[in-house]
Amino acid sequence: MDRKEFLNTGIIFGAAAISKGCTPLVKDELPVPVPDYLAEIPISCSHEHWGSLTPIGFVDAGFVADLKPGALPDRRTTMADLLIDPYMAGSLAGNGLKLRQNLEPGEEFRELSEILQDLRVKGTYQALRLGILFAYNYDLQSFDQEQFINASRMIGEQYGNLFSWYRKLMSKAGLTNLIRPVQPEFYFADFKTGPALEELSFTSTLLRIDPFLDFWKTSHPRRDFLAEKLGIDPVDGPTWRSFLEKMFSHAADRDCLGIKQLQAYTRSLDFEEVKESGVRFRGDLSGQEVKRFQDWLMHILCELANHRKWPHQIHVGTHNHPHSNPLPLQKLASRYPNQKIIMLHCWPYLDEAGFLAQAHPNVYIDTCWQPILNPDFLRKSMDTWLGYIPLSKWTMSNDSTSVEMATGASMISRRVLGEALSKKQKQSGISDAELREIAAQLLNNNAVGIYGIGSYYPL
Fold first, then answer.
1. Which of 52, 81, 107, 177 has the smallest count of CB within 10 Å of its CB?
2. Rg (CA), the chain
3. pLDDT at 256 > cutoff 70
4. Domains contained in the chain, number
């Protein structure tokens, strides 16, 4: 089944689809057809975490895929590995799942099937469900053990040739311009192995800067590793500047496109300008001293990104409320005008994010993760932003941990965008040609302009 057929089967959304799985819907239950152009326009995957799965591995510094280019599974990948990903794991554990390791596919099915029924309208589940259905022709909501086992076998086969599988499913699903944020150590790994060359032939990266904000601790093996590699131990203002300048140059030499942070998980986004003389750079710091160090360091990082005209992805909302409110980012936007700030996710701060995007020429929005958290979050965003912010100021990537999840999330995004554009056309009278142009901007062309990779979809 191709993308257009898949989008118009009635599987995506609607009570009938949820209750009946893949059962064909009766004529009066069919959704409004998705226009051809919404199936044809590629979606730029400008913020993804593919490879964040147990078979590929996790260590203290993060997922192995974020530390090593070309990271491959160290065992056969199963259906359970896709389902118990970092996003679904919390919901499954919270619902009582204690999955044992090294189970046979039939045992995996029996342990997962009952608990999955309680999650079957959850956005994360639906994104995975749609991606698995599109990729392997198996519907999780059929709760069929034989088909589950067969699909799990196919997953193992495809993940045995991982990057070839990524490219194959990306082509089928209409996904392009893959960008992944990676850890600083990634840029010191071997880029010349066969798997690394294969992955990097279609994957671009962003440097995660969040680890640096933790480097004030007296003992920090990750800081010491990077200090040795760069030949600079950051102990004061001048050495920190030199350390970061050399880190940025080293990453740029390995085709890094920009930077990314997720500080909003743990602190506010209010990065005040701090005098260097008032900063302690290492030791037993108090909470206020840690904040001053982080504030000072963030301005140095933004200064370097501003100089290189690098985009800067910033996690906004979803956690740590109200400290993940994006309004304090006005300071960084005004102070560093050549740095493109891309606010990721933004829910529930849709109004605040919209205000920043329409008020500052260097501030953008990416709806990534919204279709996975809850498709209705994306619907609210469409209602809020389509009539408010310039169409050039937002993108629609997926923020998925697997190519299958990205596939399902992209199908949700296409249909929600179709619904929103149809509604906007009735309200404003814009033409079909204009709808196609808007869809191309949001799904692909804006990301091409922001990150400087890929091709513009012809209008």
1. 107
2. 22
3. yes
4. 1
CA atoms of 340 and 396, how far apart (whole Å): 16
Is residue 432 in a domain? Answer: yes
In a domain, 179, yes or no: yes
CA distance 192 to 197: 6
- Quote the pLDDT of residue 26: 44
CATH number of the domain at 230, please. Answer: 3.20.20.140
Of all residues in the chain, what percent carry a pLDDT higher than 70? 95
Decide the pairing of beta strands 311-316 and 256-261.
parallel
User: Does a structural domain hold residue 108?
Assistant: no
